[in-house]
Write a structure and sequence with these properties.
single chain
């Protein structure tokens, strides 16, 4: 039996747009200047983009504004044609890409739901049958006969998303327009993501929300100026995305770097983390920590250049990629001071070991003070430790607790007068 191939393949896709310097808005302007040539600039929205998404995978697409994310989704949805390269889709596709696409603003929601669901692959009869479910999810029962031009952007998002999830598509393309919805509806959509993922549907999600990438995605793609910077673990991509947002040097490096997976560290090189380890309650280095008691994470840093008041920290994750601890000198009282070239320092972060048994990985970092992310050295998952103990639960940590049982006393309303 042959193994099923990828659900989505993007192979060497490039897309450019011609941007005019000025536009002719009226027939009079055209008549008065018939020979005037409009100069244009070329925008390279996508440059040789390639990746594959496996069936049932939740795949994130991230990047700064203008990096080509929405253009890529529109090419996959066949809204745009590609200049070069091919896109292969294996399965029924449902797209939620741009606010209002596929809707007629002069028709009421009732008609738009039927038309849009039919365009996405349902029969008219099936679209009518699912109408009530769409309206119930979108919470728009009072507005089904209102024309869409009178809808708010949030109402449009709710209606479009509700239609999309009723289509029973194999592959869903979802753009970041979910950000228009209110907090309650966003949570409702996130709950739906969990349901769709458990149904083994393939989802491609464009977002700026690194929390959503960490929470849902199996892998993620990072775009910068139309180029693929990396396809990797969501945590690696999330860290790199933050660095690109706040560091001009990192953005310049991304122009030439095509494979983030070839490196496990990032930073400007003013210092380097030499190694890191864990210590048990007695202060001795350990690769296995018993649950309970105190323990410590420690790392040694050597400074290559002079640095004033750097931040020292660590992020600890379990084997499900949950962040269990994020600790830094940013929240401690002592000021680190100035470190000279060649100077070495150990920093140590101690905590109560409330961890459940399992494997934990530590990402140490040294950063500069100030706004944004300015890594000096960050080493992804540099060291791990095994926590041992008699119990293994579904909890993230083992918080101490007490259980108390008492005979129930009747409430005042139950006592006869």
């Amino acid at each position: 039996m042959s193994t099923p191939g990828p659900a989505v393949v993007v192979d060497g896709v490039s897309k450019t747009f011609a941007l005019p310097h000025e536009r002719v808005h009226t027939l009079k302007e055209r008549a008065l200047h018939p020979l005037r040539r409009t100069r244009t600039d070329t925008l390279h929205a996508l440059r040789d983009v390639s990746f594959a998404v496996e069936p049932g995978e939740f795949f994130g697409i991230v990047g700064r504004n203008g990096s080509g994310k929405s253009t890529l989704l529109k090419c996959m949805a066949a809204i745009y044609s590609t200049d070069r390269g091919k896109i292969y889709i294996d399965g029924r596709l449902s797209a939620f890409i741009e606010l209002g696409v596929g809707f007629s603003m002069d028709l009421p929601a009732r008609d738009n739901v039927i038309i849009n669901a039919t365009m996405l692959g349902l029969s008219p009869r099936e679209a009518r049958r699912r109408f009530d479910a769409v309206v119930e999810f979108a919470e728009l029962g009072e507005f089904v006969d209102l024309k869409l031009k009178n809808y708010s952007s949030g109402m449009l998002v709710r209606l479009a998303f509700a239609v999309m999830i009723q289509v029973d598509a194999d592959i869903l393309l979802i753009d970041e327009v979910l950000a228009v919805g209110d907090a309650a509806f966003q949570q409702k959509c996130f709950d739906e993501f969990v349901r769709i993922r458990e149904a083994h549907k393939t989802i491609l999600l464009v977002t700026h929300d690194m929390g959503a990438v960490h929470r849902f995605c199996d892998r993620a793609l990072l775009l910068e100026r139309g180029r693929v910077v990396a396809v990797d673990d969501p945590d690696v991509i999330g860290n790199r995305y933050l660095e690109l947002n706040f560091s001009a040097t990192a953005r310049d490096d991304a122009e030439h770097q095509r494979d983030l997976g070839s490196t496990e560290r990032m930073g400007d090189g003013s210092a380097e983390i030499l190694h890191a380890w864990f210590e048990n309650e007695a202060g001795k280095r350990a690769t296995v920590l018993p649950a309970g008691g105190r323990c410590s994470f420690a790392a040694r840093v050597r400074f290559i250049a002079s640095v004033d008041d750097p931040l020292f920290g660590v992020v600890l994750q379990n084997d499900r990629r949950d962040i269990i601890l994020a600790a830094s000198t940013l929240w401690s009282n002592p000021t680190p001071g100035r470190f000279a070239p060649g100077q070495e320092v150990d920093y140590r972060i101690s905590f109560e070991n409330l961890l459940v048994p399992g494997r934990y990985e530590a990402t140490p970092a040294v950063a500069r003070q100030g706004g944004g992310i300015a890594w000096i050295d960050r080493r992804e998952k540099l060291v791990s430790v095994l926590v041992s103990g008699p119990l293994r639960t579904d909890a993230v940590v083992e918080l101490p607790y007490e259980v108390e049982l008492r005979p129930a006393k009747p409430s005042p309303a139950e006592v006869p007068s």
